[in-house]
Write a structure and sequence with these properties.
Structural class: alpha/beta
Number of strands: 15
Strand content: 15-25%
Largest sheet: 7 strands, mixed
Radius of gyration: 22 Å
Length: about 475
């Protein structure tokens, strides 16, 4: 079988689950040197299922508890559920190996960019005959259409995944640092301009212990995930409308926003340097109270609300808005979906399990925090999310940042906020994007100018994108 590089494209990093109490189902755990763990949940029946996903530890615990409850409820049918969890990087490797060996797990993740490839290669089944259409129709439209495919076009035809979530990458700020600096909190109804944001970051960047070294910064950025919101908020598109042509140099909005983004490190030094970020990443520095602004995915909220993890007051705000866009603070939306393998021996059972994890109201109440007190996702069920769940957050019944409307602004869209799927969602793989990311630290540390880098990397990105489309169309092996 031909191994395609496109198989793992588009897998979202949005992990959004929560921890819950234990259940009586027996289990055995094993771990391996590749950072994977495997938990066997035992019933009294004959059927077996193998689930493979990627997750962080707290996310693993949450899903394990949901699967325990499912196993207990179906113990007369289920003999064993092998729940395997790995890292996102290892997941891609494991799926490629499983495809090569014709040994796919029964349930696994697919990102929107991979739906076409998985379906065309016969790796997953349509779910139309296995799921409740009423429940599917009450999903956020964006995460329903992302997994529909009619053999030609995404967004039409049969449904091939039930969404794990609809995630959003908002912006967070440390209120304690603002208080110490005597700075007004960001206005959630009026996102900063680039200049306003830079001014606040300068005021938050300090040598707090007087040793001559900066140890508190205005912002920490992760190139792979936290760069594009600056650019999207300046009206940036990296590709042509048909997603076939890379446009990095004949693109004023991109050039200006890329310059601003890299200047935050190289010129203004309001972020940790490349070397400092290598020594300790921005996420840990944020948790340690060294950072004024940091990205906050919907999956991060429970951790940030946990005083043992993050002992600071914080809230949500919008990403800064550049001068060349439409005036809306814009970030990326993400999703990943549960698929059922074509080789699954018990597709009815598998579909029922992913329904419990995706569209079941009780499951969504648990995973979004109403019944557990820890929310790592916005509910998939739109009516519940915008109604009872949102009101419970505002009433303080679910621990959450008070500016939750920022997240809903990105998801639903309004006159101040907008959420979009990244362009990698619509290309056969993301190698053109990883190529773009590779040399950005050289710009951030000042060894290469922003303009020179864009000129240098554009043809490399184009070559990678051309290869991806050729592979997708079957022109290359």
């Amino acid at each position: 079988m031909k191994l395609r590089k496109v198989l793992a494209a588009g897998l979202c990093a949005a992990m959004t689950v929560t921890s819950m109490a234990g259940c009586s189902v027996a289990k055995n755990e094993a771990s391996s040197s590749d950072a994977s763990t495997s938990t066997n949940l035992k019933g009294e029946g004959k059927d077996e299922l193998h689930i493979l996903i990627y997750a962080q530890e707290h996310e693993k615990a949450a899903y394990e508890e949901q699967i325990k409850k499912f196993t207990e409820a179906h113990k007369d049918q289920i003999k064993n559920v092998n729940f395997e969890v790995t890292t996102q990087d290892e997941y891609n490797t494991k799926m490629t190996a499983a495809i090569a060996a014709n040994d796919l797990p029964d349930i696994f993740y697919i990102g929107p960019a991979s739906v076409k490839e998985y379906v065309d290669n016969g790796y997953c089944i349509p779910l139309d005959d296995y799921v409740d259409q009423t429940a599917v129709d009450n999903l956020w439209p964006e995460i329903k259409s992302a997994y529909q495919y009619d053999g030609k076009e995404i967004g039409k035809g049969s449904l091939y995944c039930l969404p794990k979530d609809l995630s959003c990458f908002a912006f967070a700020y440390n209120k304690d640092l603002f208080d110490k600096a005597g700075i007004d909190y960001p206005d959630p109804d009026k996102p900063y301009t680039y200049d306003e944001f830079l001014d606040v970051c300068k005021k938050l960047t300090k040598d707090t212990d007087g040793d001559g070294e900066i140890d508190q910064w205005g912002v920490a950025n992760a190139n792979a995930f936290g760069m594009t919101p600056y650019m999207y908020s300046n009206g940036v598109k990296f590709l042509s409308d048909d997603y076939k042509t890379v446009n990095l140099t004949n693109n004023k909005a991109l050039e200006d926003s890329f310059q601003f983004y890299t200047d935050l490190t190289s010129k203004y030094k309001v972020t940790p340097s490349v070397e400092q970020d290598t020594a300790m990443g921005g996420y840990q520095r944020w948790l340690d109270g060294q950072i004024g602004f940091y990205a906050c995915g919907t999956w991060d909220v429970a951790a940030f609300m946990d005083k043992a993890t993050f002992p600071y007051d914080w809230d949500l705000c919008g990403w800064p808005v550049g001068p060349d866009g439409d005036g809306k603070s814009t970030t990326w939306l993400g999703t990943v979906g549960f698929a059922v393998s074509k080789t699954c021996k018990h597709p009815d059972l598998a579909a029922e399990l992913i329904t419990a994890l995706s569209t079941d109201l009780d499951g969504q109440k648990a995973l979004s925090g109403e019944t557990t007190g820890k929310s790592m996702q916005i509910p998939n069920i739109k009516d519940y999310a915008t109604g009872d769940w949102k009101q419970a957050v505002k009433d303080g019944k679910i621990p959450y940042a008070s500016n939750v409307d920022v997240i809903f602004g990105y998801i639903e869209g309004n006159d101040k906020y907008k959420g979009i799927f990244e362009e990698t969602t619509y290309t056969p793989n993301n190698e053109w994007w990883t190529t773009f990311l590779e040399g950005i630290p050289n710009v951030q540390n000042g060894s290469e100018s922003a303009g020179d880098y864009l000129k240098e990397v554009e043809p490399k990105c184009q070559e990678a994108l051309d290869n991806a489309w050729d592979l997708s169309s079957g022109n290359k092996n």
